[in-house]
Write a structure and sequence with these properties.
The chain is α+β, with helices and mostly antiparallel strands. About 20% of the residues lie in helices and about 25% in strands.
């Protein structure tokens, strides 16, 4: 049969074809890291997911100077650690900013604006800094109000009781007016003007035109009327609303909007932080961060947050109006609350910090999900509800404590010299009349008052006075969290000033913690790794290895699999190792104590091991992470089989799937050997229909040392061989 020359590739009318790709499960990942530390700004105790280093700068700003050490600034390590994570191959992380218990945001009074509530009472318009901390000090706000004339039908019907006032605008004139906007109603010089908020709008139906309105006009509901008199200085006069007739002729209608400019004075220079344009005087809250701090909204201001009292007034129907008599003022100065550094107050949630491995998860679930009033956890414990995290680091935990340093007393001014009296013992000629008079002595400068007080600076304590117990307490809590959740690893580091004996003592104190002792169910120290020393990132900057190591572990997993040991892989970024070089005997002692030492090799700086703080069989980090990865995979696979009929064919199907899974992992190098053992349900119909699958695996361990012997033959050649 000849093929027709006419073809139809479209769809028939009334026939909907919805083609979707089959849903593909995401891969099980343990490469997602989490970093907890100090940042310049950003939400507190809220995990923020990031995909690159630029995302960090957009939310958390730049580097934060914490104190000084011998005149050099001490900078928070969180920003550098996140950058190192991405530089070393990491692809996704969560960042939690923490601060001191006394942290607070800045608060300002908005210039040129006031709020008038339903009783006629006047209130200041307040706005908070978007985030807690001293980052917002020196910020200045400027408001410019614009008025745009609108066509109108020449008449306004004032509010009567609970009914709003009505204003008719021609077709198309109200297209730029939205609910919540402020309108200025001008009735001429004989009557006060009114400010009113647009509550809603409706269309005049055909055939129902009245009071000069035409079909199709927009009728605006006006609520919250506020009267004011345009004297040389505008005066708000709430009782003057009664002077406006119930139906009054209009001279003009103006839409009131404003622009908000935010600048910051830094080192005597002003820089623009943000500019918000074309804001409605009652809908502008939609452009600010909401009152309750939480995940940052990237579509809103990253500098300002709505203040609770002001937001409550506007929500209750108050009207925000322009008033040139209101000047800008800082009501509250922001503070990071880090005048003293106690890691326990910054990194731990006091409600769960005392829990053990067995009690932590039930307690967290009770607080987050089962309590009639759930609470948000703080510090490292805010990460408990995020399932995808596989690595947790606290790079700012190992700072030395700092203390306030009083400024030096001002130098006393030198005593003025005694005046020299002229010698009148002989005759002196008078000045000639034609000589020009000498210029007058310069007058003393005006007294500008006493200079501003010098802020007290912070300096690191001497290494001999460092108290390690607070940092150890946080590290124990972090290991407890990771062991209780069974799917993440604590990436720990040591203070930079510790030498090898001090590092060994630190490891001993951490490993011998009674609450971290192994039991039949879990080995907590298998979820902890310790890395040393610090990395020198430039001539002036050094940082703990947390970020670079976490990025290297993540990249190793993404490239070769979670079962490949993340050791002997050069780290990207460091130019040297901080501190004096470790002697070879100290390196061996640290290696034997399961401290992962970073050393310089031919290809760069790399860790010589990837050990946990536990003994065999959980010594190798790759073994611990492989079993955690397998556990997550099996849990997800096993959920499919719930409520299935446990007959022989189903049991055989489950057995084949798990055997295939283990065979693929064995071929990839995850296991030396593996087999599946299935215990079917009891043949007794009255018994529970339980299907138990036992997975027996022998994880592979990395080769850490290879002995190569070079033999010199009689011909003078070197050959590889065994011992002679």
């Amino acid at each position: 049969m000849a093929a027709s020359g006419l073809t139809f590739d479209g769809r028939l009318p009334g026939v909907v074809v919805d083609v979707t790709m089959p849903e593909r499960e995401s891969a099980i990942r343990l490469d997602v890291a989490a970093f907890v530390g100090f940042a310049e700004r950003g939400p507190l105790d809220v995990p923020v997911a990031l995909e690159d280093a630029n995302g960090y700068a957009g939310v958390f700003g730049g580097d934060l100077v914490l104190a000084s050490d011998g005149g050099r600034p001490v900078v928070a390590h969180l920003a550098a650690s996140v950058r190192a994570f991405f530089d070393n191959g990491g692809r996704r992380c969560h960042v939690v900013r923490v601060a001191g218990p006394d942290a607070q945001p800045s608060r300002w009074r908005m210039p040129g604006l006031r709020i008038v509530d339903g009783t006629g009472a006047s209130h200041e318009v307040l706005v908070d800094a978007a985030w807690y901390g001293a980052w917002s000090r020196g910020t200045q706000l400027a408001v410019s109000v614009t008025r745009r004339a609108l066509p109108h039908r020449g008449r306004y019907t004032r509010r009567a009781g609970d009914r709003p006032g009505t204003l008719a605008l021609p077709v198309g004139a109200s297209g730029i007016v939205t609910a919540g906007d402020l309108l200025e109603l001008d009735f001429g010089n004989d009557l006060p003007r009114l400010y009113g908020r647009v509550g809603g709008r409706r269309r005049v139906p055909d055939g129902e035109a009245a009071d000069g309105n035409l079909p199709g006009d927009d009728l605006l509901d006006i609520v919250g009327e506020v009267a004011w008199r345009p004297l040389p200085t505008p005066v708000f006069d709430p009782p003057a609303v009664g002077l406006v007739p119930s139906t009054a002729p209009l001279a003009a209608v103006r839409l009131v909007r404003f622009d908000l400019r935010v600048d910051q004075l830094v080192n005597g220079e002003s820089r623009l932080l943000e500019r918000l344009t074309d804001l409605g005087l009652n809908s502008w809250l939609e452009r600010l961060q909401p009152v309750m701090a939480g995940q940052p909204s990237r579509s809103r201001s990253m500098v300002l947050r709505a203040e609770r009292h002001t937001a409550d007034l506007l929500t209750a129907g108050a009207v925000m109006v322009p008033d040139t008599g209101i000047a800008a003022a800082e009501v509250l100065a922001g503070d990071d609350g880090l005048a003293e550094f106690d890691p326990r107050k910054c990194f731990l949630d006091s409600d769960v910090s005392g829990d053990t491995v067995s009690s932590l998860v039930p307690h967290i679930e009770a607080l987050l999900f089962l309590s009639p009033q759930p609470i948000a956890l703080r510090g490292i414990h805010s990460l408990a509800a995020i399932d995808e995290i596989g690595l947790i680091a606290c790079p700012d935990l190992v700072h030395r404590q700092w203390t306030p340093v009083a400024p030096p007393p001002p130098e006393e001014p030198p005593e003025p010299p005694e005046p020299v009296l002229p010698d009148w013992s002989s005759f002196h000629c008078c000045a000639a009349l034609d000589e020009e008079p000498s210029p007058p002595e310069p007058s003393a400068p005006p007294d500008l008052g006493s200079p501003p007080a010098v802020l007290t600076s912070l300096a690191l304590v001497d290494p001999a006075g460092y108290d390690r117990e607070p940092a150890l307490t946080v590290q124990r809590a972090l290991v407890t969290l990771c062991a209780a959740l069974t799917d993440r690893i604590a990436v720990l580091s040591l203070p930079a000033h510790l030498d090898a004996p001090d590092a060994l003592d630190w490891q001993r104190q951490l490993s011998e913690t009674p609450t971290l002792g192994a039991d039949a169910a879990v080995v907590p120290l298998a979820y902890a790794t310790l890395w040393h020393p610090w990395l020198q990132l430039s001539a002036q900057a050094a940082a703990p290895p947390d970020g670079a190591v976490a990025g290297m572990i993540a990249a190793r997993e993404l490239c070769r699999g979670v079962w490949v040991a993340p050791a002997a892989v050069p780290l990207r970024g460091p130019v040297a190792l901080a501190g004096p070089p470790l002697p070879e005997p100290d390196v061996k002692r640290l290696f034997d104590a399961h401290v992962n030492v970073i050393r310089q090799g031919p290809r760069g700086f790399a860790p010589i091991s990837a050990h946990t703080l536990a003994d065999d069989p959980w010594l190798q980090l790759s073994v611990r992470r492989t079993i955690s990865w397998l556990r997550k995979l099996v849990l997800r696979t096993g959920r499919r089989y719930v409520f299935e009929v446990a007959n022989d064919s189903f049991i055989a199907m489950v057995t084949r799937r798990f055997e295939s899974l283990l065979a693929r992992l064995t071929d990839a190098g995850a296991f030396h050997a593996a087999y599946v053992e299935v215990a079917g349900p009891s043949p007794d119909p009255a018994a529970d229909a339980q299907l138990v699958v036992h997975l027996h695996v022998a994880p592979t361990s990395p080769i850490e040392f290879i002995t190569v012997t070079l033999l010199r033959t009689g011909d003078g050649l070197l050959e590889i061989g065994g011992p002679s």
